[in-house]
Design brief:
The structure holds two protein chains of two kinds. Chain A is an alpha+beta fold. In chain A, a hairpin with a 4-residue loop joins strand 16 and strand 17. In chain A, helix 2 runs parallel beside helix 4. The radius of gyration of chain A is 24 Å and the shape is elongated. Chain B starts with a helix and ends with a helix. By secondary structure, chain B is mainly α. Chain B contains twelve helices and no strands. In chain B, helix 3 packs antiparallel against helix 9 and helix 8 crosses helix 9. Classes of the chains: A alpha+beta, B mainly alpha. Chains A and B meet through strand 6 and helix 2 of A and helix 8 and helix 9 of B.
């Protein structure tokens, strides 16, 4: 078990910069999620920690040792690959036993440890099968068992759930969370799925274009986004982004509607971010602004209203039992909490 | 015309060609192997001997056993050396890199040469008076300068093996590069992270996954080595003495040079036995259900 520290880590391929001079401290026992769209450098960062990719510049520390020049086998990390990377010619038992065997674990110890790991992911009755004869979820478990059978200093997981169907993904997500709390091993987890990131992480590092945009707890990332990108990337439905300006202490939309009081100095170009959950719906005339319902969706646990005034559309989450028709006029109000203002040119948050 | 009749009519020419060029000669050679079959004796092509030709090869012909021995050693050496070196080259070329495409193109050149030409050019290169090797050794290792390579039984055999290995490495390398490329990179990286050294990755992960391709390569090369003829014919013509006389060469000599076509046919049919075994193994690997 160990902390992982990245110091000014850079990876280039010719002119293309995959990871751009990034630093990150990951605490011992921490579950850190690297989150970002594809091509943002999150997998490259993980592969550099594993030793599968050489950094162009910068340092990687695991515990109190700089591991830049160590081979993957000497870094004592365990990795779960997106496509699992199971050995097709070996049985499940041999797959799980492989890390023990190559590390010269005494013969007598191997079987009980493999059985214990297999038990933790409920694989006991499949030990004699070959990977080909397993379902996606079962293969995923084998990959997990192979990672937990030894006690690595760090777990690395590269989109481990992305090849599973939606239902299985939710189950496996809970199992991963349970397992990580039980094993208490530093984990770095790469995903592009913000729900996975929110549910699993102690801290999330949001990446884009090779740069870490923000590092924080899921709560901080969700409730205090540092930039337009983070605000738009986290949350479902995505945060509403409304173009406008600040005049006399009020946010005014580009269409000229005076929407809500804000506590920042006047500024011509700003973007107001507000989440679907942070707006209230009331009858026509009762709220801050009246708008026509563009679409009404019922998701089961809530309702989603897309409303429109002028050319501006926003999504508002309504109560479970709310029933409205397309075309009806409702009124929405924005609380003064949970409003985020951004500079549209730099994407940076404007704080009051 | 009914479709059914038409479809048979359409394949008929092909069937006739195959019959005339492959099946009929095969049957005819089998028939000949049971006859006296000497070109110099009129009527001997219809004079049946039963199994006597076969018995003759086994009991009365040291030259037959010599050819069997030469062919066996030649096959084991060429298959072993070619496969090992091709695997080494494939591993060097597989990870990619700037020169790979160019190297691959150059690699195929020796394979584009006809085996007879390879034989001729190696004979030239080992010529004791104006050969390339002679010139090399004259400068680099003077004691070897005057060695007459193709006149020494063991050296001549070594030169034959060398020429064959040189000619076959490129093709087998290309096949193995293809095989290596089909191994999922994930499994290799997983093994590296699991703690395996490069050697263990190669032994535990690469080789088992490459095994089907490797088997096909070994079987194919065995078949080609067993039937080697043209290269040896041009390079040493079986000599000195019978030091490099393979079975094919022995069959050719008996049939065409000595006119003992019946006896030659029976030895040829003896050679069919290992060929069938290899061909069966080959089809099993190539068309394996997995």
């Amino acid at each position: 078990m160990a902390s992982v520290i990245l110091k000014n880590l850079t990876k280039c391929w010719g002119d293309f910069i995959g990871v751009d001079n990034q630093s990150l401290d990951i605490q011992d026992h921490e579950f850190l999620v690297l989150l970002g769209p594809s091509g943002c450098g999150k997998t490259t960062t993980m592969r550099m920690i594993a030793g599968l990719e050489d950094p162009t510049d910068g340092e990687i520390w695991i515990g109190d040792r700089m591991v830049n020049d160590d081979l993957p086998k000497d870094r004592h990390v365990a990795m779960v690959f997106q496509n699992y990377g199971l050995y097709p010619h070996m049985t499940v038992f041999d797959n799980i036993a492989y890390p023990l065997r190559v590390r010269g674990t005494p013969k007598g110890e191997i079987e009980p440890r493999v059985k214990k790991a297999a038990g933790q992911v409920e694989l006991i009755e499949l030990l004699h099968r070959k990977p080909k004869a397993l379902s996606g979820g079962q293969r995923q478990r084998v990959a997990l068992a192979r990672a937990i059978v030894r006690t690595p200093r760090v777990f690395l997981m590269d989109e481990p759930l992305s090849n599973l169907d939606a239902k299985l993904r939710v189950t496996m997500r809970a199992e991963l969370k349970h397992l990580s709390r039980e094993l208490k091993i530093t984990t770095i987890y790469v995903t592009h799925d913000q729900i996975e990131a929110m549910t699993l992480a102690d801290r999330i590092a949001v990446m884009k274009d090779g740069i870490i945009q923000q590092v924080g707890t899921p709560d901080e990332i969700y409730n205090d986004p540092a930039s337009l990108f983070v605000a738009g990337f986290i949350g479902s439905p995505a945060m509403n982004l409304i173009n406008g300006s600040v005049q006399d202490g009020y946010f005014v939309t580009t269409g000229g509607t005076k929407l809500v009081a804000v506590s920042v100095p006047d500024k011509p170009d700003v973007v107001l971010g507000v989440r679907a959950d942070d707006m209230r719906i009331s009858e026509e005339g009762e709220g801050d602004i009246d708008a026509r319902i563009y679409a009404f969706e019922h998701t089961g646990e809530a309702t989603l209203l897309t409303v429109q005034w002028g050319t501006q559309r926003v999504i508002v989450r309504g109560a479970r039992h709310l029933r409205k028709e397309q075309g009806e006029i409702v009124s929405i109000s924005l609380g003064s909490d949970h409003l985020y203002l951004f500079n549209p040119d730099t994407g940076k948050r404007i704080r009051g | 015309m009914r479709d059914n009749t038409l479809k048979y009519l359409l394949v008929l020419p092909a069937i006739l060609v195959v019959f005339a060029t492959a099946i009929w000669p095969l049957i005819e050679s089998l028939r000949l192997s049971f006859t006296v079959g000497r070109f110099s004796v009129p009527g001997s092509l219809e004079q049946y001997l039963g199994w006597e030709n076969f018995a003759w090869a086994f009991t009365q012909e040291p030259a037959f056993w010599n050819a069997v021995r030469v062919t066996a050693i030649y096959t084991v050496l060429t298959v072993g050396l070619t496969t090992t070196m091709a695997l080494g080259l494939a591993l060097l070329l597989a990870p990619g890199g700037k020169f790979r495409a160019g190297v691959q193109t150059i690699l195929i050149l020796p394979f584009a040469m006809s085996p007879a030409l390879i034989g001729v050019s190696f004979r030239f290169m080992f010529n004791p008076e104006f050969g390339l090797f002679d010139a090399f050794f004259g400068v680099l290792i003077p004691p070897l300068a005057d060695v007459s390579w193709l006149a020494d039984p063991i050296l001549a055999f070594a030169v034959c093996v060398m020429a064959d290995v040189w000619g076959w490495i490129p093709f087998l390398t290309l096949v193995l590069i293809g095989g290596l490329a089909s191994i999922p990179q994930d499994t290799i990286e997983a093994a590296q992270v699991d703690g395996a050294s490069n050697w263990r990755v190669f032994k535990d992960i690469t080789i088992p996954q490459l095994a089907p391709v490797l088997a096909v390569v070994i079987i194919l090369k065995s078949i080609f080595s067993l039937k080697t003829f043209d290269q040896i014919f041009m390079l040493t013509n079986g000599g000195p003495g019978t030091a490099t006389q393979t079975l094919s060469h022995y069959i050719y000599f008996n049939g065409m040079k000595y006119g003992q076509i019946g006896y030659a046919a029976s030895v040829a049919w003896l050679m069919v036995i290992p060929m069938i075994v290899l061909a069966y193994a080959y089809t099993k690997f190539v068309f394996r259900k997995d």
